[in-house]
Hints:
By secondary structure, the chain is α+β, with helices and mostly antiparallel strands. The protein is built from 4 helices and 16 strands.
Amino acid sequence: MGQIDYTDFKDSYNEFSDKIATALPYLSTIGLNWSDAHLKEFPHFGIGITVGAVFLPTEAFGDVFDTFGVSIPGNFDIGQLGIPLPAYVVDARLGGFKDFFDLGFKVGFIWDQAGKALSGMTGFDFDYLLMGGDIRFIVLKDEEKKPGISIGLGYNYMRGGVSKSNALGSSQTIQFPAAMGLSDITVDSPDVSFFWECRVIDLKAQLSKKIKFFTPYIGFGGSYGVASAGGGLTSNVRYGGSNITQADIDAIKAAFESAGMSVPDVSAEGITLKADASGWSFRTFGGFSINIFYFIIDATAMWNFTSRSLGADLNLRFQF
């Protein structure tokens, strides 16, 4: 049986929450980063699939794993780049009227059968949903020697999480600070979980120029996000050696409130912590597409000035 100091448990998950809450608005912008600054007027349209990722510093997850005395799985950590948070969407654009604007939509999720297959193969459970849309107003049309320029406004919603069943191999006892007068909590052979959610308003400006079969582009974006993230240990919970009761939960809550500390979410199913964050983040993005008749391969790289992290995505689409 492992023993975990509550302060270490809290600090490590707070570190994770802070890092990921900063990255979430950035991650939610995966998709709809198309090379063309704007589409032609209706009925022109495009539809495709985008896959991408942004990178978190390894210590965002590393502090949690260190607290539990285990190592980050090797295939999660990509050296100096850090740990990738992936995202994928089906995205589409529709031209507006009189070359004044175009509209974009995107959605990505894990359906039940795929989630069960992933869980069965790796022992992990996954939750993932990303959806959003934008409208881009045309400032300058791409014609003759002039580039295309647009400005856009969008909204994204993202939810996700990952948990590993029986990740620590034994029951874990969490020891509260002695001054609080609380008994220890024991979580039987727990799953280790992480979860996150955000809502984002996104602003961006983009410049592109079609040159025969290539379209290079560059842009700048700013996102205001309201995010929450956290995690913990989930399984059967015992308090002072017996299955935890509602009276025990109320006593824990009262002790934390009396000490002026944030209250963990304790139940018969586990103990988790959550932190909220909101604010602006800014990024630059750019890349190029290869245009083969109506089929387009589009590669984008991104840099977030706020979190100082890289991101990238690849889009394959049909565009008319």
